[in-house]
Design a protein that fits this description.
Length: 370
């Protein structure tokens, strides 16, 4: 393991990434299937800003969920969601949208449980507008992303990047569904940030493989998959370092800020960021690269290269690892132009009717005055 990390840090091809692509695709398909199943069975716990309703946070040390439900039953609000936060704060969320009734419940909670520290009420119209704008922002992001990558790189890479980002979003939201965490506007911002991290790693991989194919592809000594593997070995350590340095402050925000210091409002945001950073790094190294390699290998150019190398018996077994010295070798091309005879450089013939000027006469020196 240490030898592999040292090789990746030095930019050497030591890992056979295509060997793990099929396993990674199977894992991703299973994760997406679990996420979609969870959506269908459990759904997503949307925050009050999306669906509307009333939210209370009551300072009630020692109160249990059963005690709170008994109080709510007398108010005909027993269907409300009750959650104990930090052992002394009770969070209550209901679908009640009538302001008069919401104030009545607030007064009853203050008299029977404790001080109502936070009270929030959102109408159904506002909730639907927030949901519509969040979906619109996501769609605009995908359109702009596909347009930019298609112009900057190529459409096959745009397809790979979109599939990887969609995979990251589905898996991240699936984690929320499985854990029963609440999706808030802050969570949507975290999801957009997640897509930024995922795209950064994916673009770095695509740009590196474009460099490799431009420098080594003309020699027709390697397949596109082998060049993609070389690019992944060159940039994987950069992606790992970026993910680790990004995940450490998010992890401290989640563990220390949320669980130790009690900043529970940051929990959903930090959880989305942490899951997204990890899933995004994984998808850029395995899913996005595997999809683009599969699409490129179907092009006529790379089909011919593969057939040529296969005829030589160079594609038997696992993926060929390109060493650093071999990757840095210049292309073995003849520096002479075809159909040219060797010999001294010929001068350009002089124009007809004019004598050839071979040299310019020397300028006479001025005589010095005595």
């Amino acid at each position: 393991m240490i030898t592999t990390l040292k090789g990746l840090y030095a930019g050497e091809a030591v890992v056979d990434f295509p060997r793990w692509w099929r396993i990674a695709v199977g894992i991703s398909a299973l994760a997406v299937l679990i996420s979609v199943t969870s959506f269908g069975l459990r759904g997503i716990e949307r925050g009050i800003d999306f669906v509307g309703g009333t939210s209370y946070e009551v300072l009630a040390p020692g109160a249990s969920v059963a005690d709170v439900r008994n109080v709510l039953a007398g108010l005909d609000a027993q269907d409300s969601r009750v959650q104990i936060v930090d052992n002394d704060t009770v969070r209550i969320r209901s679908d009640i949208q009538n302001p008069d009734r919401a104030n009545q419940i607030r007064e009853t909670l203050s008299s029977e449980l404790g001080v109502v520290e936070t009270f929030e009420q959102v109408g159904p119209t506002w909730g639907s507008q927030v949901t519509e704008k969040a979906i619109r922002a996501l769609l605009v992001f995908f359109v702009v992303l596909a347009f930019y990558i298609s112009i900057r790189l190529e459409w096959k890479m745009a397809v790979g990047a979109l599939v990887a980002v969609a995979h990251d979003i589905v898996v991240s939201v699936g984690v929320y569904s499985l854990l029963g965490a609440e999706v808030t506007p802050a969570t949507v911002i975290a999801f957009l940030t997640i897509m930024g991290y995922s795209l950064y790693d994916t673009i770095v991989v695509y740009d590196k493989v474009r460099e490799m194919t431009g420098r080594l592809g003309a020699a027709e000594r390697y397949t596109y998959t082998e060049l993609m593997n070389l690019a992944l070995n060159r940039v994987s350590m950069r992606s790992i370092n970026t993910s680790v340095t990004s995940a450490l402050p998010v992890l401290s925000l989640l563990v220390i800020g949320s669980f130790v210091l009690g900043a529970t409002t940051l929990r959903e945001f930090a959880l989305a960021l942490l899951v997204g950073i990890l899933v995004g790094s994984y998808s850029s190294l395995f899913l996005a690269s595997a999809l683009v390699a599969r699409l490129k290998e179907r092009e006529t150019r790379w089909v011919k290269v593969r057939s040529k190398l296969d005829a030589r018996g160079l594609l038997e077994g696992s993926t060929r690892l390109i060493s650093r010295d071999e990757a840095s070798m210049p292309e073995q091309r003849s520096s002479e132009m075809p159909d040219r005879t060797k010999g001294p450089v010929r001068r350009r013939p002089s124009p007809v009717g004019r004598p050839a000027v071979t040299s310019r006469p020397a300028r006479p020196r001025k005589k010095r005055r005595s």
